[in-house]
Amino acid sequence: MAKWLVIVGIIFILVGVTWPWLSRLGMGSLPGDIHIERKGFSFYFPVTTSIIVSLVLSLVFWIFRK
């Protein structure tokens, strides 16, 4: 269990460090992401980005499991 927590922590650190470059590539503002702006209110829900991140993480965990 501790090994997996370390791996997940390293993945979070890598994503945090590479986030400025990922945002330049368009991650976080893909078609399908919901963004609602009104006076005094802003709501953002990254549906498409969440699906892509989920697929990538599932693939990484599947590779490490083998």
List keywords for this structure.
alpha+beta; single chain; two-stranded antiparallel ribbon
Question: Could you please describe the fold and organization of this structure?
Answer:
The chain has one domain (2-65). It is elongated and about 50 Å long. It has 2 helices and 2 strands, in the order αββα. The model has no long low-confidence stretch (mean pLDDT 83). The chain has helices at residues 2-24, 47-65, and strands spanning 34-38, 41-45. A two-stranded antiparallel ribbon has the order 1-2. 64% of the residues lie in helices and 15% in strands. The two termini are 17 Å apart. The protein is of the alpha+beta class and 66 residues long.
Largest sheet: 2 strands, antiparallel
Q: What's the end-to-end separation, in Å?
A: 17 Å
Q: How do the strands of the widest beta sheet line up side by side?
A: 1-2
Tell me the Rg in angstroms.
15 Å
Domain tally: 1
Work out the strand percent. Answer: 15-25%
Please describe the topology of this protein.
Elements: H1 2-24, E1 34-38, E2 41-45, H2 47-65
Antiparallel strand pairs: 1-2
In short:
The chain is of the alpha+beta class and 66 residues long. Helix content is 64%, strand content 15%.
